[in-house]
């Protein structure tokens, strides 16, 4: 029996800093990336809290017995965010056998840091959003790793989609990629996102997509710059959407559709998401892994939208589409 | 893209009878087992409907393009059952490549029939229950199959457990096994159930267990008798519990704990349950597979019971225990 659920978070302790003693950590890419994700976490939480009257992101710091730890920041029952988590971790140690096998490498020392966030808003008109940015290094010395790579992405899952919101989100991420053409490609990252966030048993995309990338290795300095730009672009990709929609009135009908759509989110995360599966199988911290699940969910049997309803129109969006080259007239009307 | 979600159920058509034309079907074990599960479905639905004022089990008949079909019977928003499904199917065809690989056999013709039920009651004091009874045959002629086996089981998932209910449920299933000692063993079936319905990432059993068995091959006549006895024993295993608890008053606190516990049920079914995973991966009928998911679910972050509360006492039950040989004084008080 593992004690993973007993690893009591400690609100009083300092930042995750046990990596400081690792060989070659000072000035390394590992250190720069850890600082980048921790700074991103702080900025994102502060901005989101500015919309809340009472709720705030609590801090759950946790330590990993084998090395490192993380800071889970969760908000619940806010005015704007129903449930959201913005987490960072920086963990290190000997690569577990199983993970070495998956990655096809020797069980060397490893270091991994990342920012991972999921926001489920109160309003059915404000989309759920997910993003993460991560760095992984293998080897004895972090100043000269045997291997290192970058991964990440951001994707949007509206309940009642607005055309303009899907376009804004994709434009933001296309622009980030365009600023780093040597390491990033919107077209291929967009396709990877569509391929990944798909529910075959529903014949549905999870939402309207975004970008997704992993195992980026060449030109690490440019990859760091891309990661920094992407982390900084999360708020501009999402906040305009949130501000446009957060005060729209909604009723029980819209809440119900929201809860049904959130069931699809749960299905994706528990059945397909590699991070979730890997975390649960390798004894990760369960509450941090499952923080991505929405607060309220419904699974009515064989639910179908009424023909020509705004719920049926919403379904049009859950097929991968080329949002930046689509005729507005071909999309359904906005759901108001 | 499959058309599984378009396979419109047809309320008007007759019983699933396309198996009648299969070689050797008349008088075969396949036919007997199909009749047994269809009769069980009818009896169970009728009995459960007797507690409802308005709700009833709707009938969704579906056909499988490759052969056979099923009858999904679902009730929703009843007075006693919040969401429940009692399904039968009888499917046949050429064993799919993937399934042949999993089973380690040649891709022969197959026939499979079974009854599968999940009931999620309204009251947090009435346990969720799951049961299924199934038969599988391989070969060209159903009167003389190349291989055939039986599987099934029943398990109870209380929200607020009562000691007497766990004992009653296990006693019923122990007695069924005792009546068929040549093919059934309560001790080993009980252990198989505990091993299977376990959530490692929570360090929790799904509920208080029951029995679980699969790939039973020897003495098919006695296995048919055991299957019939087990199917007939479902109502006596559950109805006394339902009758004792269905009228107990409850409030928002108990509903909330119920919805959190139902989150565990979803986690088990989507992350671990072989039937669910297999069904989704092999293009089964999604709505019949996911019928097992509860109607209302909640996932608050890092929920923990208050010390010494009835919710904490409930957690004592979610560890496999020898219910028929346990000192009542060692169990928590009942949750009233």
Could you explain how this protein is built, in words?
The structure is a homodimer of 336-residue chains. Chain A is an alpha+beta fold and 336 residues long. Chain A has one domain: Coproporphyrinogen III oxidase, aerobic (oxygen-dependent coproporphyrinogen oxidase, 3-Layer(aba) Sandwich), CATH 3.40.1500.10. Helices cover 36% and strands 24% of the residues of chain A. Chain A is built from 9 helices and 10 strands. Chain A has a 7-stranded antiparallel β-sheet with strand order 1-2-3-4-5-6-9. A two-stranded antiparallel ribbon of chain A has the order 7-8. In chain A, a hairpin with an 8-residue loop joins strand 5 and strand 6. In chain A, helix 1 packs parallel to helix 5 and helix 3 runs antiparallel to helix 5. The radius of gyration of chain A is 20 Å and the shape is globular. The relative contact order of chain A is 0.14. The N terminus of chain A is likely disordered. Chains A and B meet through helix 6, helix 8 and strand 10 of A and helix 6, helix 8 and strand 10 of B. Strand 10 of chain A pairs antiparallel with strand 10 of chain B.
For the terminal residues of chain A, how far apart are their CA atoms? Answer: 51 Å
Q: Could you tell me the mean pLDDT of chain A?
A: 92
Class of chain A in CATH? Alpha Beta
Radius of gyration of chain A, taken over Cα atoms and rounded to an integer in Å: 20 Å
- Succession of helices and strands of chain A: HEEEHEEEHHEEEHHHHEH
Of all chain pairs, the largest interface belongs to: A-B, 35 and 35 residues
**Stretches with pLDDT under 50, minimum 5 residues of chain A:** 1-14
Give me the CATH superfamily of chain A: Coproporphyrinogen III oxidase, aerobic
Beta strand count of chain A: 10
Q: Helical amount among residues of chain A, as a percent range? A: 25-40%
């Amino acid at each position: 029996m593992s004690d993973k659920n007993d690893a009591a978070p400690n609100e009083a302790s300092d930042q995750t800093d046990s990596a400081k003693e690792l060989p070659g950590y000072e000035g390394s890419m590992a250190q720069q990336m850890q600082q980048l994700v921790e700074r991103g976490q702080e900025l994102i939480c502060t901005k989101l809290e500015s919309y809340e009257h009472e709720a705030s992101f609590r801090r759950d710091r946790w330590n990993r017995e084998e090395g490192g730890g993380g800071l889970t920041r969760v908000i619940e029952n806010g005015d704007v965010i129903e449930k959201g988590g913005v987490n960072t971790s920086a963990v290190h140690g000997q690569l577990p056998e199983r993970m070495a096998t998956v990655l096809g490498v020797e069980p060397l020392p490893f270091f991994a840091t990342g920012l991972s966030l999921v926001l489920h808003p109160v309003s059915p008109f404000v989309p759920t959003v997910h993003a993460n940015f991560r760095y992984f290094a293998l080897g004895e010395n972090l100043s000269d790793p045997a291997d290192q790579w970058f991964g990440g992405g951001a994707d949007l899952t509206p309940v009642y989609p607005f055309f303009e919101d899907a376009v804004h989100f994709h434009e933001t991420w296309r622009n980030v990629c365009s600023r780093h053409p040597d390491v990033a490609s919107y077209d291929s990252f967009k396709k990877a996102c569509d391929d990944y966030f798909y529910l075959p048993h529903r014949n549905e995309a999870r939402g309207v997509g975004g970008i997704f990338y992993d195992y980026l290795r060449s030109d690490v300095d440019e990859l760091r710059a891309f990661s920094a730009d992407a982390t900084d672009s999360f708020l501009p990709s999402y906040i305009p959407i949130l501000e446009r929609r957060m005060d729209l009135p909604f009723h029980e009908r819209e809440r119900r559709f929201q809860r049904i759509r959130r069931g699809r989110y749960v299905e994706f995360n528990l059945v397909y998401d590699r991070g979730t599966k890997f975390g649960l199988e390798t004894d990760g911290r369960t509450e941090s892994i499952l923080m991505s699940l929405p607060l309220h969910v419904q699974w009515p049997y064989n639910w179908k939208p009424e023909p020509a309803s705004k719920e049926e129109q919403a379904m049009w969006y859950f097929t991968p589409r080329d949002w930046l080259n689509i005729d507005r007239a071909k999309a359904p009307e906005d759901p108001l």
